[in-house]
């Protein structure tokens, strides 16, 4: 795994150098020199310096550095009233660029567009001009077919339909602003994006289907991966989707080639591939939150979980599970705290407690919605009314809980604090030092006799 960490470090250095990040003082220059020195002092590390240069050249080939003017070919994702420009002239851009949607349904489009006006506010660009040609994405028809099936299944239940589209197809344009705010305030916004939860569910469902229909061990995994690839391509390879897709693909191929699954290696492989495909995602909030949360689960939580298990053994499995869920949510909140403070000027305090109730109920709801979608795609609509009654009951309970949790004080504190990157650096240095101390204490002294609670 150390090789993967070095490759990722070389890639990060290449991105930072390419971005020409200007940081006050000489700290950044010293950081780069230190990294290069570390690479050079060992002969075997010379390959990583070469990789750094290769990555730097690669970034020049795949990123757009031109002006936002004239006639350009734009690759756009329309979602609701706006469209997000993902690529310009088939190259990625570091800018957040939006374009008004003039009535096109959700999906991916290639536009030949003459840019005539640019508005910039808070680092966000909005472009206006003349549309000369538009080509719809080749997979949009599949997505529209799935969308129609969801709308038919939840006909007359607008709120459920909107939630289902967001959770299963990634369409969030119709979510009410107040409802979206409550999800963010309670820390449950990850339930209305395509996450590892849904990808894992898709893999399990297809494997179960093929288990009784296909006898070839490798073929059922290959077909599962093929269907997973089509699904992810249809909803679009955003940062969160790409992360979960890569991780799921690694798991599937490890089964095909009888390799032992290593979640930590999968994490770094996913990091490297994501940054190579989407270079500017490194500075994207969803990238930071997504990988920050998963990294916390893989590398930080086990340390606290061992400490918890050693110090306090609770015989009631249900209570023990609740406390471990709260501990996991708290660890994730600690590790992603600077991201919220830096980008949103909010300080999460007790929002991690909402996950104890919100995640199990939200997970069950998403599982049922996906099952309904899958059955309807295959033309099985006989059970729609039964599923609708069950989903409606769970959704109403889930919605009520969200409203209740949102009223709890101090879930998040809104501040006007604009922190400097140095604060973030020192914050994670302190966290890393604390984790190392706990590991050292565990190895050298062990933990004392645990407290037993009935």
UniProtKB/TrEMBL annotation:
GO cellular component terms listed in the entry, alphabetical order: plasma membrane
Keyword presence, Acetylation: no
Segments traversing the membrane: 7-40, 46-64, 191-210, 222-246, 267-283, 289-304, 325-344, 350-374, 386-405, 417-441
Keyword terms: Cell membrane, Membrane, Transmembrane, Transmembrane helix
Residues annotated as domain ComEC/Rec2-related protein: 168-435
Localization (cell): Cell membrane
Pfam families per the UniProt record, alphabetical: Competence (PF03772)
Membrane topology category: Multi-pass membrane protein
Protein name: ComEC/Rec2-related protein
């Amino acid at each position: 795994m150390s090789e993967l960490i070095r490759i990722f470090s070389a890639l990060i250095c290449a991105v930072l150098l390419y971005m020409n990040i200007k940081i006050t003082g000489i700290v950044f220059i010293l950081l780069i020199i230190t990294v290069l020195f570390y690479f050079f002092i060992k002969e075997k590390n010379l390959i990583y310096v070469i990789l750094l240069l290769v990555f730097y050249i690669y970034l020049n080939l795949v990123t757009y550095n031109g002006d936002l003017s004239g006639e350009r070919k734009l690759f756009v994702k329309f979602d609701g009233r706006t469209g997000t420009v993902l690529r310009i002239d088939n190259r990625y851009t570091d800018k957040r660029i939006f374009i008004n949607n003039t009535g096109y349904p959700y999906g991916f489009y290639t536009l030949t567009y003459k840019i005539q006006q640019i508005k910039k506010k808070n680092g966000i660009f909005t472009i206006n001009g003349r549309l000369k040609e538009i080509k719809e994405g080749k997979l949009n028809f599949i997505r529209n077919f799935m969308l129609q099936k969801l709308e038919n299944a939840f006909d007359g239940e607008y709120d459920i339909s909107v939630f289902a589209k967001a959770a299963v197809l990634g369409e969030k344009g119709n979510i009410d602003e107040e409802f979206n705010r409550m999800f963010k305030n309670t820390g449950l916004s990850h339930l209305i994006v395509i996450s590892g939860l849904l990808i894992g569910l898709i893999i399990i469902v297809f494997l179960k289907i093929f288990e009784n229909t296909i006898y070839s061990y490798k073929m059922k995994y290959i077909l599962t991966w093929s269907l997973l690839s089509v699904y992810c391509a249809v909803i679009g390879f955003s940062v969160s989707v790409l992360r979960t897709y890569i991780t799921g693909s690694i798991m599937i191929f490890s089964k095909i080639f009888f390799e032992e699954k290593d979640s930590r290696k999968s994490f770094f492989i996913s990091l490297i591939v994501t940054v190579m495909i989407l270079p500017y995602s490194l500075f994207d909030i969803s990238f930071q939150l997504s990988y920050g949360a998963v990294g916390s689960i893989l590398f930080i939580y086990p340390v606290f979980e061992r400490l918890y298990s050693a110090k306090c053994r609770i015989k009631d499995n249900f209570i023990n599970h609740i406390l471990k869920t709260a501990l996991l949510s708290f660890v994730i909140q600690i590790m992603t705290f600077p991201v919220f403070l830096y980008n949103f000027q909010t300080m999460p305090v007790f929002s991690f407690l909402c996950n104890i109730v919100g995640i199990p109920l939200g997970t069950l709801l998403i599982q049922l919605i996906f099952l309904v979608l899958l059955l309807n795609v295959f033309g099985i609509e006989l059970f729609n009314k039964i599923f609708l009654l069950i989903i409606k009951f769970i959704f109403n309970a889930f919605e009520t809980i969200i409203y209740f949790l949102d009223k709890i004080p101090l879930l998040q504190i809104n501040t006007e604090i604009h922190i400097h990157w140095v604060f973030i650096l020192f914050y994670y240095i302190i966290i890393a030092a604390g984790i190392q101390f706990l590991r050292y204490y565990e190895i050298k002294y062990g933990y004392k006799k645990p407290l037993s609670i009935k």
